[in-house]
UniProtKB/TrEMBL annotation:
Protein name: Short chain dehydrogenase
Keyword match Plastid: no
SUPFAM superfamilies to which the protein is assigned, alphabetical: NAD(P)-binding Rossmann-fold domains (SSF51735)
Species in which this protein is naturally found: Saccharospirillum salsuginis
Pfam families per record: adh_short
Keywords: NADP, Oxidoreductase
Length: 267
């Protein structure tokens, strides 16, 4: 850790693997104190041990982010352990069911919104009192380019991520006077374990998503670094992927043009 940087206390949901783990590793390397939350206790403990490297204090709490009482318990425990909180990454999320809207069940919609939206709002609400004690608190919500570009066959996922973007815009306004900066990250496909959250019976969908992620040009570490840099500077939008960033600009200029491009490339 350089002398010019103050050590931060960083909380990351879904930190046991994928992007969450990459974010945790980057902060550990910066000399920050990190706490990761995950519902997979075995993987979470393994990740914390790997991140600690025998000299850095990394906390792990098992937490079901869809359970309000569990989230309140964890945040109460964290507030007793740490003097404050500098940065919250609402990273945990699922892809959920893939298919046309007419085939998506109520359960599929509830599952997507429970973790992708309600958990983000819940954790932000619980963390804000601790973030207000920091001189420069940060909230980073991990959404997706699907929230900006809304591909077909992923209505529940796209709608939930669009909700995260809208929630982030609201938080940006509400927390401005408290000095808390908000960043919303909208990555496209990169190598992670997101496809594991697609129901196993949806074999074609899982195979398609896994192929798209495998062909991604950015790694989880690449995406994590861009997100951290955006949060450091208080940048609101972080769009790590160049092609999708161009498509978003195209949408803002001409939705009709974007519609034609996306129809031509959809699976």
């Amino acid at each position: 850790m350089t002398e010019s940087r103050t050590q931060e206390h960083v909380l990351i949901t879904g930190g046991a693997n994928g992007l969450g783990f990459a974010l945790a590793r980057a902060h550990v390397e910066r000399g920050d104190r990190v706490c990761i939350l995950d519902r997979d206790e075995t993987q979470g403990l393994k990740a914390a041990e790997q991140l600690s490297q025998g000299h850095n204090d990394v906390l792990f709490f098992r937490c079901d982010l869809t359970d309000a009482a569990d989230c309140e318990r964890v945040m109460a425990q964290l507030s007793e352990t740490w003097p404050g909180l500098d940065r919250l990454y609402n990273n945990a999320g699922i892809a959920g069911s893939v298919g046309k809207l007419e085939h998506l069940t109520e359960a599929a919609w509830q599952a997507a919104f429970a973790i992708n939206v309600f958990a983000v709002a819940r954790m932000s609400r619980l963390a804000i009192p601790m973030l207000k004690t920091a001189q420069r608190g940060r909230i980073v919500n991990v959404a997706s380019m699907a929230g900006l570009l809304s591909a077909s066959h992923m209505a529940a996922y796209s709608a939930s991520k669009a909700a995260v973007i809208s929630l982030s815009e609201t938080l940006q306004k509400e927390l401005h006077k408290d000095g808390i900066k908000v960043t919303v990250a909208c990555p496209a496909f990169f190598k992670t374990q997101l496809a594991n959250s697609i129901p196993p019976q949806e074999t074609k969908a899982r195979a398609s998503v896994e192929k798209l992620m495998a062909n991604g040009k950015l790694s989880a570490d690449d995406v994590a670094q861009q997100i951290i840099e955006a949060s450091d500077t208080g940048q609101f939008f972080c769009l790590p992927h160049r092609r999708e960033r161009w498509l978003w600009y195209l949408k803002r200029m001409s939705n009709r043009a974007l519609h034609k491009v996306m129809l031509a490339h959809q699976p």
